[in-house]
Amino acid sequence: MGAYRLNLNLKMSLTLQTPSSTTLSSASSIHSTTRRSTSYFSIRSTLSPKTIRCNSRRSYPQTRASASSINIASTTELDAVSAFSEIVPDTVVFDDFEKFPPTAATVSSSLLLGICGLPDTIFRNAVEMALADSECYGIENPNARVSCFVNKAFANVGSDLAKLVPGRVSTEVDARLAYDTHAIIRKVHDLLKLYNDSNVPPERLLFKIPSTWQGIEAARLLESEGIQTHLTFVYSFAQAAAAAQAGASVIQIFVGRIRDWARNHSGDAEIESAQLRGEDPGLALVTKAYNYIHKYGHKSKLMAAAVRNKQDLFSLLGVDYIIAPLKVLQSLKESVASPDEKYSFVRRLSPQSAAMYQFREEELVQWDHDSMVNAMGPAAVQLLAAGLDGHADQAKRVENLFEKIWPPPNV
């Protein structure tokens, strides 16, 4: 690769296993405008004695109780909160598999960049085999050829990950397709075919799609085919409700990013309404979306991401998934919960409380392109655009890199 040097600050979003009775995974490589994690981990794989080091986000299954509160006389805070939501680490050092066993993974452009920058990883061969693929090799159009290589690399790495983790592997869809429904669907079908060729069953897969209207419409059509989707970059109730109506398997809301925007900007009616009620706007959006999903019987699971502290986490107990920073998880694990604890470990979100929630008439429409776009305030518009720009840049970097190193050495 010569002087070409990669930024190894890698993001690996996670897919989740479903709470209790069903199995579901989701992802959370959710990165664009917010601060990036920089911890490194090493995976010791059963496939190879080699070690890889890069940034990652993975999930750990937790047991959830059905009661609204639990006996916390002799348990850790992590055990207590895990009774209500699946708690997922945002960034984890994976040297200790017994303490933090990875259960699922996401293939993203940033992951491919990291793999290509590390010469001795268990996934390097998956990328090199993609670059040597005879089907792609024979394509004369250079843009089509590199797109073929990228698809092969995603599926090869994802197939290897499927052998390593028991949960689902989520595959990122190119953010540059975010405003083209049919292009998103074609990309997912292409990737699904490659996974099928590698004998990875569709139930082990999720496809991560930006929550533009076109992305939500693509999710609706894909879900109707039985292909499971994870809608990301959700920053408004309109997006969340439209995603739920589309039947997305997972909907991801970024608590901390919304809060950050609110601290530095004004003029967003949805955010200011929450603030006037004395509520944190990010937490309020998760609560509202959860209540909407459960009150009206939508199948979607809700993921709260960019959770910054323990109080955030306590305020969201009952949501399907909570992605928490490692420092928060460590604090929860090291803290013994006792009856006189300052915080009460009580389920904050539940189908029962959702049934009591009152929505305004204008919030109960059948969402379409115009109504959703008009209802998105400046926070959602700006944060969505920033997220798409960041992921599009990563995708372009992968293509540029593949053009530089194709054909791979020793092939």
Automatic annotation (TrEMBL):
One of its GO terms (cellular component) is cytoplasm. Pathway: Carbohydrate degradation; pentose phosphate pathway; D-glyceraldehyde 3-phosphate and beta-D-fructose 6-phosphate from D-ribose 5-phosphate and D-xylulose 5-phosphate (non-oxidative stage): step 2/3. It comes from the Eukaryota. Its EC number is 2.2.1.2. One of its GO terms (biological process) is pentose-phosphate shunt. Keywords: Cytoplasm, Pentose shunt, Schiff base. CDD domains: Transaldolase_TalAB. Pfam families: TAL_FSA (PF00923). It is an enzyme of class 2 (transferase). The keyword Cytoplasm applies. GO terms for molecular function: transaldolase activity. Belongs to the transaldolase family. Type 1 subfamily. This is transaldolase. It comes from Vigna mungo.
